[in-house]
Amino acid sequence: MAGSAIIDNPLALRAKPRLSFWQIWNMSFGFLGIQFGFALQNGNMSRIFETMGAKEDELAFLWLAAPTTGLIIQPIIGYLSDRTWSPRWGRRRPFFLVGAICASLALLVMPHVSALWMAAGMLWIMDSSINISMEPFRALVGDMLPSNQRTAGFGFQTFFIGIGAVVGSLLPYIFTKWLHFNNIAPAGQISPSLKYAFYTGGVIYFLAVLWTVIRTREYPPENLAEFEAEKARTAGFWHGVKESFAGISDMPRTMRQLAVVQFFSWLALFSLWIYATPAITSHIYHTSDTTSKLYNEGADWVNVCFSVYNGVSALAALALPVIARATSRRVTHLLCLTAGGLGLISIYFIQNPQFLLVSMLGVGVAWASILSIPYAMLAGALPANKMGYYMGVFNFFIVLPQMVAGVTLGFFTKHVFGGEPVLTLVLGGCSMILSGLLTLRVHDADDIRLPNNMTPAENLSYDALMSDINPKV
């Protein structure tokens, strides 16, 4: 099959071959669809909650259901995918497909919610399903690519995340401005433009993930007999639960250090996703009336802003390997997160909505780095037979800051910031800069600038590494 990573010899795992541009393209393409789901969720759930009657200080709490479930599901999904093998479907691809089916259905149902509790419940289902697809994609890079291609591999994923998020974020604006669907609806109802944006996202999500499922072939276990014996010894759902949570205390040093970095960077991101709509509509458009034309113009502009930062991230992702080579992955992450933090803080000083696009440039650079650099550093510190499991455990440190955000940001917004959600974005900017500084503490033994840390099979030239971001067949 053209463009597929077909490896029939199990011994290939001992010295993984370099994959071509199109092979990495195909194995990453599913992220295009996944990000359609995340873009619609992140850009519009607070808008939907407010439409269903939620108050500003309640928004963060309403986002809690999804991360609480993710805290349990993600390490178990990783654990199970490590112990899955089918000659026809591989190891990670069954989870891609199941997650895509559930998430696509949730995107189709979301526009029909009619109460606040229904919206929160559908967010729970949608977020959990998206993560079932997403986390095995992270592990797939570690499975398939040699060490010196992993930064490029995660960069490809970030590129597709950026492209998917640009279009996904713009969908409500496209249906309103270009296709002339109404973006205003009676109180308690979702507008036609937003409905059709979710319908479109659901279809694209499924088709993009299906492309990766069909066009990618995974490596079989290195020793199939040993794999089956280990799977039988550790079989069972509850054993997976026990192992998933017990493994937190056994995390590699690099993973423990990255966990703190992840916590503060994702806390900043959640402050943006939860409070961007109320902050921009109240601080710049000076309205909180969800049935007004001005509010919905502001909410649509939030989606435009999100599309800009995601577009910037798609381009920045291609530059990250170059910057990492010139400095290091740690310094690259510090620079990117600082740019993102300053971008969030700058929103407080803006009154013209057009200038928000400048703020989004910094956020986009940070987003590109968050989606690739920590995973590139982590993959080199993990044992191959537990790649999916540890990637799932690593998701704890995305989920935990969301839970902290859900518990604390509403209190800060109402009681500390006097009901001004824009100040919550400033707090997020400070958290992102702190995260960048903490990156300097991370032990990155697998840094691409340090070829002495590679095995002889992996110790290839940097020129060969960089050729992966240029098209070739």
Please give a handful of descriptors for the protein shown.
473 residues, Growth Hormone, Chain: A, disordered C terminus, globular, mainly alpha
How many discrete domains? Answer: 1
Strand content: under 5%
Radius of gyration: 21 Å
Mean pLDDT: 83
**CATH class label:** Mainly Alpha
Count of DSSP H/I helices: 19
Query: How would you sum up the global shape?
Result: globular
Q: Largest sheet, described in full?
A: none
Helix content: 55-70%
Low-confidence stretches: 1-13, 450-473
CATH superfamily: MFS general substrate transporter like domains
What is the level-2 CATH architecture name? Up-down Bundle
The count of β-strands is 0
- Note the run of SSEs as H and E: HHHHHHHHHHHHHHHHHHH
What's the CATH topology label? Growth Hormone, Chain: A
Distance between the termini: 13 Å
Which structural class is indicated by helix and strand composition?
A: mainly alpha
